[in-house]
Design a protein that fits this description.
Elements lengths: L2 E4 L9 E9 L8 E3 L6 E5 L4 E4 L6 E2 L3 E4 L6 E5 L3 E8 L19 E3 H5 L1 H12 L3 H15 L8 H12 L6 H8 L3 H11 L4 H19 L5 H7 L5 H12 L22
Antiparallel strand pairs: 1-2, 2-9, 3-8, 4-7, 4-9, 5-6, 5-8, 7-10
Helix pairs in contact: 2-3, 8-9
């Protein structure tokens, strides 16, 4: 089970992290996949079969064929309904704001249809992406659409950009107090800016990025003790590590290895 990654146009790289595709038959897809929060929002286009979502409460339901997935704050479980064929535009943590028509906080843990986001323009985008015959054409279509949405509102908040870069560089180990002092901004202002530009609080994003760094540690250090991994990734102790790990994945670290995480970690696993 492998994916392919593609770089965005240089003029979009402040907003779009990457594009990627997944193509494989249902026999090569785990029955259930746990998608782990990673601090990014994604436009997802299923030109293959659809996926079921298993919410924490209530019955499973089929997701839209094309949608935006809001910021995740908990594990998101999906199940293939057939063969996978998926094209994804993945945004930086602060990258989707210029393209949104709905407050980011309202989209948390939720698939939002393109028609709800963009009306008839969203329906047209969906139709054009789905009938495209190659990834190159899909990238050209999505980039033309994104450029059409980049107006004056597309300017980057430099304070938020700097703070996000710090969180990513430090693997989420920097405290909110350190971020506010370094950037000469008070905590309330910072939280308000983050809610608007990212859909998460600074603390939520930091916890998410730290967990992602920890997952990479687990993938490359199978024989390290949980205590060593906890301290290496700046958790207070092993119990703190286990609590946050289960919050974001639904599993304990010892249950980590296996098919449940195959799709979420597809670009981090070493083949």
């Amino acid at each position: 089970m492998k994916g392919k990654v593609f770089e965005p146009d240089i003029k979009l790289r402040d907003f779009v992290k990457r594009y990627w595709t997944l193509d494989f038959p249902i026999g090569e897809t785990p029955q259930l996949n746990t998608i782990i929060p990673d601090g990014t929002m994604k436009l997802i286009f299923h030109y293959g079969d659809l996926y079921w979502h298993h919410p924490q409460l209530g019955e499973k339901y089929l997701q839209p064929r094309c949608f935006l997935i809001g910021q995740l704050t908990r594990p998101y479980i999906v199940e293939p309904d057939g063969d996978t064929g998926t094209f994804v535009a993945q945004f930086h943590p602060n990258g989707f704001l210029p393209f949104s028509t709905i407050p980011l906080k309202e989209m948390e843990n939720t698939p939002i249809s393109l028609h709800r986001l963009y009306g008839e323009a969203g329906t047209k985008l969906e139709r054009n992406i789905l009938k495209a015959e190659s990834t190159d054409i899909r990238i050209r279509i999505i980039e033309e659409f994104l450029f059409s949405k980049l107006t004056d509102s597309g300017t980057i908040d430099e304070i938020i950009k700097s703070i996000v870069n710090t969180i990513l560089t430090e693997n989420g180990h920097t405290t909110v107090n350190q971020l506010t002092e370094k950037n000469n901004i008070n905590r309330r202002q910072l939280s308000r800016k983050f809610a608007s530009a990212i859909g998460l609080s600074p603390k939520q994003l930091s916890k998410t990025i730290r967990l992602q760094a920890t997952l990479k540690t687990l993938l490359s250090s199978k024989h390290k003790s949980l205590t060593d991994i906890a301290y290496q990734n700046d958790y207070y102790d092993q119990s703190h590590f286990i609590k946050e790990f289960k919050e974001f994945t639904g599993f304990s670290p010892k249950e980590f290895y296996g098919e449940n995480f195959e799709m979420s970690l597809i670009f981090d696993k070493k083949n």
